[in-house]
Write a structure and sequence with these properties.
The chain has 393 residues and is an alpha/beta fold. 27% of the residues lie in helices and 27% in strands. Helix 1 crosses helix 3. The C terminus is likely disordered.
């Protein structure tokens, strides 16, 4: 029996699946739903998140790059899959994974078409239009000529066209950008170019601006319980305190000594730091240093919860450790820390729950049966990967 480690992530598979199911019910067909599982499934594990969303009714999956797509294909997930980032010089890899590629560059599109043609295939692509995000995509005024050139490339199938909203919580801005995008689509139709799948809505637009739903929506953060009060939380970062003591009044904590105890403070050390994704920026400017001094008197950034009571970070986070305040009633309870899901290191083990009970863990790329004793998880036997069941959206 070997302990998983001093810190771990707990993932509720039922909550992931139910969130997808509720969202799917709220989006009338024929609009499709693409579950976005980039960034390791927003820290939940890309394979597990993808399978849960497909079980909950997702039609498509969206990933950042070909390496994420490969993980899903190796798990025998064969649903339609859109890769958001272009992948020049990797056309062979793209074709082998049977993914939909984002195109916004004619040279890369020609290379993909040429390889597909030589292999007797059709590479399905989605053309991206830049309506204000400023990252990827052809400009609206260039979209007509670009689409026309794509259609002349044997070996390509122009299956979709999409855009991305940079500020979807601004209804006025989103309305204007959607109008620009829809004008592009209308102008293409006027030229006889009909693209089957038109999509634009990310999580925020999906929730706040129904006219953006179009042929497909692309929820990401909302599926993981963020930004929608009727959806369940899906993820918890937990650890145990490895050292605790009372700091005297005036004692400083951390690099730079930016936090100072205004009174005797019960402090604990948790074995997590910025190497694990717990980022806490230093207070460099005089104004921020003043804010830091006030934090020393009033408290500092919320760190999480201990037995339902709020805990706070004390000073800067180190590479592998962080100091937090402890309630006076602290008696070696597990600490639940607040952290951004997408920044959490993949090296942290993940414990997966079904029906409120831990069912297995993933660590070092392997699945393990587990047992919990006194707030510590131990791994038992290595389990076979669940790659035998194929999933199709």
């Amino acid at each position: 029996m070997q302990p998983l480690g001093p810190a771990w992530v707990e993932v509720d598979l039922d909550a992931l699946e139910e969130n997808m199911r509720r969202l799917r019910r709220s989006i009338p067909r024929p609009t499709l739903v693409m579950a976005v599982v980039k960034a390791d499934g927003y820290g939940h594990g890309i394979r597990e998140a993808a399978k849960a969303f497909l079980a909950g009714g997702a039609d498509w999956l969206g990933v950042a790059d070909l390496w994420e797509a490969e993980q899903l294909r190796r798990a025998n997930i064969d649903s339609p899959l859109l890769v958001f980032a272009p992948a020049p010089k990797l056309e062979k890899f793209s074709l082998s994974l049977d993914v939909r590629s984002t195109v916004c560059d004619l040279e890369a599109a020609r290379a993909l078409a040429s390889l597909a043609r030589r292999r007797g295939k059709k590479a399905k692509v989605h053309m991206k239009v830049d309506c204000g995000m400023g990252r990827l995509g052809v400009l609206p005024g260039q979209a007509g000529d670009f689409a026309g050139q794509l259609l002349r490339l044997e070996g390509l199938e122009l299956e979709g066209i999409y855009t991305h909203f940079p500020q979807a919580d601004d209804a006025s801005l989103t309305r204007r950008q959607l109008a620009v995008f829809l004008e592009v689509v209308r102008s293409l139709k006027a030229r006889g170019i009909e693209i089957p799948l038109v999509h634009a809505a990310n999580s925020t637009a999906l929730l706040r601006y129904p006219p953006s739903h179009l042929g497909m929506v692309r929820p990401g953060t909302v599926l993981y319980g963020q930004g929608a009060p009727d959806l369940a939380p899906t993820w918890r970062l937990k650890t145990n305190v490895v050292y605790a003591r009372v700091l005297p009044q005036g004692h400083r904590v951390g690099y730079g000594g930016e936090w100072k105890a205004s009174r005797p403070t019960l402090a604990g050390i948790v074995p997590l730091g910025y190497a694990d994704g717990l980022t806490l920026e230093p207070l460099r400017s005089p104004l921020r240093q003043l804010a830091g001094a006030l934090q020393g008197f009033l408290g500092t950034r919320p760190a999480g919860w201990i037995d339902g009571q709020q805990a706070f970070f004390l000073g800067r986070t180190s590479m592998n450790m962080a100091a937090i305040s402890l309630p006076e009633s602290y008696e070696e309870q597990t600490v639940e820390l607040a952290a951004r899901r997408t920044t959490i290191s993949r090296r942290l083990p993940k414990v997966y729950f079904r029906n409120g009970r831990p069912c297995y863990a993933v660590q070092d790329g392997c699945r393990w049966s587990i047992i919990e004793r006194d707030g510590v998880y131990y791994r038992l036997d290595r389990l076979a990967d669940e790659n035998s069941t194929r999933h199709r959206g």
